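Hi L.,

You mentioned the student needs an example of a multi-chain input paired with its predicted structure. This one should do, with 233 residues in total across all chains.
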Amino acid sequence: AQTVTQSQPEMSVQEAETVTLSCTYDTSENNYYLFWYKQPPSRQMILVIRQEAYKQQNATENRFSVNFQKAAKSFSLKISDSQLGDTAMYFCAFMKIGGGSNYKLTFGKGTLLTVNP
Amino acid sequence: GAGVSQSPSNKVTEKGKDVELRCDPISGHTALYWYRQSLGQGLEFLIYFQGNSAPDKSGLPSDRFSAERTGGSVSTLTIQRTQQEDSAVYLCASSLSYGLGLYGYTFGSGTRLTVV
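Structure written out for the whole complex:
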């Protein structure tokens, strides 16, 4: 079974600054994807960024980037130039892929990020 | 539809009553998942449907929970004899097929269930 740990229940950052959210995971699988999802007060989960485990290059999406350390089983999210609209709960998630997978997500408990003006 | 639709948005029920939560996925999406988000917890997988295949019910917490998906589209999650610990947000997600979930699901806005 997989576990995902987010050690920061809450974080805050000033607008326009950079913040990093931590995530570690534990698995014996070799084929998997990692995700960061954002959940604003509307409750709808929104995909922020994903990383294929077989790729060494860190994924980037505009102001969002990850630091994927496969050996350390670490997958942190960096948000640059933070904006008020980034205020949300952020969840790190793991997905096993390949044979026998139903492509379900295993989530961490989340980090509540507040961006202050 | 344009997105995943869930109803009701909020539900308050008395302990011991049965409730039904509905999920209407994006048209053509064959994979459908239910997750539960309890206060202070991450999302917990409940059940998975893929096309006409037998569902993966491995995440259902007790036999009071059941789900069905009619015609490969709308899904209903039923909780019988609700308990206070069932209070949570129930989220539904869909993807074009199970393998394409790795590109990210589309989630609904959930149903907040409160058992009093």
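You could point out the following to them. The longest strand of chain A covers residues 88-96. Chain A touches chain B through 24 residues (CB under 8 Å).

Best wishes,
N.
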